[in-house]
């Protein structure tokens, strides 16, 4: 190789080095400018937030993002309103949102949202071990020098002036000791940045600098918040105390404080802490349909609601939360709005039938629901072909046979006799031989023909029409997820309808319920519905957080001899093993020789309550007639009453009054059950010969006991059981 060639190579190399140095120098200059701007921006924001520390908030500024090589978190704020992950932006152009995207100066900036959500997820993971629900962790993107208050999915976009008022307006969910423990924990998990020394490796060719620990793309000419500025602000804003020596002591203390708080508070206030096992269910990824079951009061609904909020945070589609009862969706919507207002608009709370009707209406499917005309059609059919048939040998009352049509035939979507002839009649005790099934089928056909003649639909028709329409539309549904509460009360057609909306997609369908609390006749198994729940997708909660030992014992005594079949087909004894949390409670039994004396005792008990205590008291009755009677009695005595049909979960200073069925899924500090044993007969314990009873009587009694059990387990602190007996 010639000497001249080597000199030229050295010159080329020197020029390459010079170019590299120049690029690095330019990068350093750009970075220094960003830091200057950033520190100015961050100082502004930090200054606006500093006063919060005097109001019990803790600020952790410029923190290392665990699990990443160089990621940082601008600020973590922990205060009465929860945990907030702040990403501070110091952009020249104002942020804009269009079609669910973040832009500035016409350029897309979604990568900043992605990064903030990823940091938020890390923070959620960190507090989950303390039993804190992800709904209590919120991502805020704060824009120095701009005025803004907008939402982009889960992320709240705020200007530097808007951020502090927004934080202060947050509903109070953490007590000072919880704030302290959570802040200490986050302080350990997201440690402070150690210095801001410039690592040559991190520089590359000027694409990244030490201030760009932010993993999102830096837009040219943009002044994004960098770590160095943040560190300087940290000198003044961070008030994190050194972590205590024994972290575990802290965590235990926090769990105990949270549990105490929960046991004192009504469900309205139960919105931040769960048992860590429950948080795991809230956050778990399931590959297909899943189920959460467990005895009364074990937190199924609470987990269902927190999971709903979480799904709404993490998906772009809507979430449907369905129960059978009409009044529950209102109450649950109130809870969710209280717990997680940011996502409340993305969740539809519906009763199954109102959902089906809306669904048909939206898709232009005509439906003429007419309960009275449908009932007249049934009564005619009964007079024509039922009353004189062999069915009366089994049960002379038409009610049992109407239930057979509603819950077994139409509820399961059966349309041929052959199918009905062989179907296992779940939760129906009376055995039907073929002639009886033929007679039922004749009754069904007569009813259907009279109903169609009148041009009306019944409730089951509404569900069947909706199922047909949902299937016709294939996968075109707006729901990312469907959560079904009190699933044991639904009919098979109802469950199929909800399953069709989301199919078997991951995290799509969640069924929440407890077979022991079934309060309607009939039933189904998951296999009948074609829903395959396997492995860890079936979870059982076992700790009762609601009832004291005395109250639960009294309730379990009612159903102790009734085994029940759950939707997974398992038979379970009525007296189930439940773990109890330590909790005081009282059962008061009042027995009077006359109805007047009994009612007087009830009035005295209610009069003794303060107005605020009345707000958390409920009088529950087995029948509409009894509700009418007690409404007149209470109002006549000047005790304000709120009917459960109208209750929406907001506190009202009135005694709640309603049926056992309407009380499902709810709870109250004090529950009063006047004449509680009137509708219930214990299973016969006398030796044969016993007096003859219709075969269906046992079934009816078992249902009445289940309803009473449900009503009794609504009580947290006090259960008043009235009885008339001479
Ligand atoms: N981890 C927990 N710690 C303390 N209390 C809890 C916890 N989880 C739930 N609770 C409380 O337990 C009570 C019962 O919760 P929830 O209504 O969700 O139970 P459930 O299983 O749906 O009851 P049911 O089937 O009887 O309607 C509520 O007051 C709730 O706040």
Describe the structure.
The protein is built from 23 helices and 25 strands. The protein has 726 residues and is α/β, with parallel strands linked by helices. It has 4 domains: 21-247, no CATH class; 283-365 and 474-545, P-loop containing nucleotide triphosphate hydrolases (Rossmann fold); 371-456; 564-724, P-loop containing nucleotide triphosphate hydrolases (Rossmann fold), CATH 3.40.50.300. A hairpin with a 7-residue loop joins strand 1 and strand 2 (72-79). Helix 1 (3-50) runs parallel beside helix 6 (227-237) and helix 12 (371-386) crosses helix 16 (434-453). The longest helix is centred in the N-terminal third of the chain and has 48 residues, at 3-50. It starts with a helix and ends with a strand. The protein binds adenosine-5'-triphosphate. Adenosine-5'-triphosphate binds next to helix 7 and helix 9. It holds the Pfam family NERD. Residues 197-245, 677-699 are annotated as: Disordered. Keywords: ATP-binding, Helicase, Hydrolase, Nucleotide-binding. Residues 273-548 form the UvrD-like helicase ATP-binding domain.
Main beta-sheet strand count, sense and barrel state: 6 strands, mixed
Please give the number of β-strands: 25
Helix content: 40-55%
Mean pLDDT: 83
Q: In DSSP terms, counting alpha (H) and pi (I) runs of 4 or more, how many helices?
A: 23
Count of folded domains: 4
Distance between the termini: 122 Å
Uncertain stretches: 195-251, 261-268
Radius of gyration over C-alpha positions, nearest whole angstrom:
32 Å
With strands numbered from the N-terminus, the spatial order across the biggest sheet is: 1-2-3-7-9-8
Tell me the overall shape.
globular
β-strand percent reads: 15-25%
Bound molecules: adenosine-5'-triphosphate
User: Which structural class fits the helix and strand makeup?
Assistant: alpha/beta
Region (Disordered): 197-245, 677-699
Biased composition (Low complexity): 230-240
Keywords: ATP-binding, Helicase, Hydrolase, Nucleotide-binding
Binding site for ATP: 294-301
